[in-house]
Every structure is written in C-alpha cells, then in structure tokens.
Automatic annotation (TrEMBL):
Residue ranges of the TM segments: 12-36, 48-68, 80-99, 105-130, 142-165, 211-234, 240-260, 281-304, 310-329, 365-383
Species per Swiss-Prot/TrEMBL record: Gemmobacter lutimaris
Name of this chain's protein: MFS transporter
Name of one Pfam family that matches: MFS_1
Primary localization: membrane
Domain Major facilitator superfamily (MFS) profile: 12-386
Domain of life, source organism: Bacteria
UniProt membrane topology term: Multi-pass membrane protein
Entry's localization field: Cell membrane
GO MF annotation, one: transmembrane transporter activity
PANTHER family (UniProt xref): CHLORAMPHENICOL EFFLUX PUMP RV0191, PURINE EFFLUX PUMP PBUE
Keyword Cell cycle: no
Matching InterPro entries: MFS, MFS_dom, MFS_Efflux_Transporters, MFS_trans_sf
Keywords: Cell membrane, Membrane, Transmembrane, Transmembrane helix
Amino acid sequence: MIPGLSPARRGLIVAAVGSSLTVSWASSYYIPAVLAVPMAEDLGLSPVWVFGAFSMAMVVSAMVGPWAGARIDGFGGRGVLMLSNLVFAAGLGLLAVAPSPLVLFAGWAVIGLGMGIGLYEAGFATLTGIYGKDARGPITGITLIAGFASTVGWPLSGLMLATWGWREACIGWALIHLVVALPLNAWLPKGTTTVTAEATPVEDGPPPSRLALWLLAFVFAATWFNSTAMAAHLPGLLQAAGASTAVALAAGALIGPAQVAARVLEFGLLRRFHPLASARLAAAAHPVAAVALMGFGAPAAYAFTLLHGAGNGILTIAKGTLPLALFGPAGYGRRIGWLNAPARILQAAAPLIFGAALTAWGLHAIWLTAGVGVLATIALLVLRRA
C-alpha cells in the first residue's frame, strides 16, 4: 500500500480508474451490439462474422492477461493502463478505416490486446498495487462506476452512429481514449506491491494450493459463461418462458440497476463478511432464479432478471476480491490474469453454445446455465477461507 494517500486522493484514484475503465468497456465489449450490423453491411458480410471477430478478440485478451498482470505486479498499473488506451485507439482506428474483412479482423485483434491489458483485471491489479490487502473497497468502487459502461456506451455509440456513421463512431471512441481516459490513467500514482509470488513474506501465509487455484478458475469461467449467455440471449429466453417482447425488454432493463444495487450492498453491508460468503450467495442466485422461471414462467421474468443481475454484480467484484482475500497481494496481477484466462475463452463461446441450446430446447436451455451455476456454488463451498 502506498503511504501518504489522503482519503480525498484515494477517492479520486477510484474515480479515475473507474471512469477510464468505463471508456474501455464501452468502446470494446459493448460496441458490437450497436455497430456490428452497420459494420457488416458496409463490408458485405453477415453480422455473424463481426461477432466472430469480437469472439477472437476475447481469446486474444485471455492470452495477454497474465503478461499484463505480471507487468503490473513489477512496475505498477499506470503504464499498462496508459498503454491500453493507446492500443484501444489504434484498434478502433483500424476498424474505422477497414476496407476489407481482413483489416476488420486485424482491428478486433488489436482491440483484444487492449481488452487483455485494460479491463477489470488490470484495474483490480492496479488498485491492489496501490492499496495492497486493503484494496477490496476500491475494487468495489470501480465496479460501481464502470457498471454504467453499457448505460453510457450504448446511447453514445448509437448517437455517433446516427449522426456520423459507424466508422466515425469508432474514431469518436478512439479520441475519447486519447483525450479522456489516457490523461486519467497518466494521473495515477505508480503503485506496486513490490513483492512477488516467489518472495511472499511469512505473514502472507503459504503459497496457494493448485486445487484452490483450479477451483477459483472454474468459478470465474462458469460465472462468466452464464453472464455472457444471458447478456446475448436474455430477451429470447424470457420470450421462450411466455413473456411478451415488451415484458422481456422491460425485465432485461432491470439487470443493470440490479447489478449496481448489489454492488452498493457489497460496498456497505457485505463488506463486513469474507468475500467468499458473498460470492457463494451470488453464485447461487442464478440457479434460484432459473427455478423460479421454470416454475412460474412469464410472471417470474422480473424476479429472474433481478436475481441474476444482483448475483452477477457481486460476482464481478468477487473476481477481484476473492484472489486478494484468499491468496494475498503478492503476485496478484499475474495470478488474476491466469485465473481469468479460461473465463475469457469460455466467454467467447458462450453466446454460440447457449444460443444453440435455446434453439434446440427452448426454455429448458436454462437448465444448462442453472447447472453451471450450481457447480460454481459447490466449488465455492469447497474453497476454504484463507
């Protein structure tokens, strides 16, 4: 932990990281929903190809995540986050000038590099470098801010698309990275825990067991799979349960507020408990919601989205706080990079897998994600409090 940081400075650091991550999420993860179709039409492609390029970007992000984490462990996160803004801007610039599908894929590959070094994992590692074992509160704080990335990103992308076009929208996001996010990250202190996994102090405890690491990696992969599957197919799932299109869209709109409300709860009441306790409750929320949807059909649509959204909101925080609480700050960045790599790869496949299940089984496809959620809950119950 960096000494001498006033409470006001600490709040500004959280605000700066949260705001820069909001830009990063909004300009990468959330732009296909708005720009994929016009991108595809302009290049004479099916939108499936654009989403395929986006999935490739997530695989690329999984490959570079451990390197970024190790870099943050050794030198602090300021430089890595600043680099991510430059990489995002370069990738968005490639998309903006893409004359062919090949350049389009190249642009998404570069954006994947940015995602690997500039999304939550990098933000969590940066704050752990600054705050050490006391980073739980700041980690929760940045998820409260960046939780509004879709709320900001989708309307802004839509506005730029309607006003200028999809290529100009990509240029607009690139400029926002350079003019807004890059200066915010440049202002951060050069924080690093200055210890490595190989030089862990005695008081930090023994090295983590392989079983604990594998269990946690599975939990992250399982919960990211469910989160991405629901993000891609929630309206169709609710309609399969008998909900009208209007009800499905209205219920889906509750996921964002539910996530933020749950994160506020984590920041307040649940911070008194070990992160393992709140993660167990959060992982169980989706299976409980699935049972309600199967049992009551369309009338349970709102309850389903509220439970799923609340659980997902807390699990996003758990991806940062659980490795810190269980294994300590030493080697945190590299460790969180490896722990989240399988999640990124499975996340890339989640829309395709759950979409096929929804087409084949209808509402009964929910048992797939419910089963995954149950397994994640069991894995968390097996983990022992450090």
